[in-house]
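The data layer described in this paper is built around a simple, fixed record for each protein. Such a record has a labelled line for the sequence and another for the backbone structure tokens. For reference, a complete record is included directly beneath this paragraph.
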Amino acid sequence: MRSPRLLVLGVLLLPVLLAGCSGSEDTVDPDTAASRLDTAAAALGEAERLDFSIAIDGRLPSGVQGLESAKGFGNRTPAFEGDVKVSTGGTSLTVETVSVDGQVWVKFPFSTDFLTIVPTEYGAPDPATLIGLPDQGVVSLLSEVEVSKTSQERDGETVLTAISGSVPGELVAALIPSADPDADVKVVVRLTDDDEVHDLTLTGVFYPGTDEVTYVVTVAASDESPTIEAPIRTGGA
């Protein structure tokens, strides 16, 4: 038969063990969290090159033409080079993409040449806008988060601080034109102990007449060359 003392000790320790497994909330006060976000934004803002990705968590609403994912790198001119995946005409399409000087070129899977396009016609933003100038782009949202709570989370062996809050829809709409400018966007930013962005999650009304969708963004400074040039062979409008 177990000792009553051991049973009492087990009952007392159970909440602590459960908290360690599920994460603990409100470990950082809002002012400190905002300061850490500013630190993260400043470090990324100074970087000449950013490795960047954005992907929908789940699926786009039925019948919506829009962005599924983008992955590549960019510089702060701003410019972007990588692959962009969009949903259009009921199918998913991945295209090589280069965006320089406000012009977007894509190479479709069935083509050998780059064509110029207007990305909003495909329900997608200009990926270079997401990179932005040093004080713009997705990184600029970090300093605009209205913090509501914080918590500790784990990603494998890495302990992260998750900072939850919201940003004004008009700021997001400047980056993703199809977003509702009048509806706040929920944000969760996960930071490492060194105040580096592990990832950030944006949840809001990104497409008119639909429910909320969630995008997960990763962004990191890189020491590699940030040079991005327009394709030599182009066609289209």
The chain has four helices and twelve strands. The CA atoms of residues 5 and 60 lie 55 Å apart. Residues 6-22 have pLDDT under 50 and may be disordered.
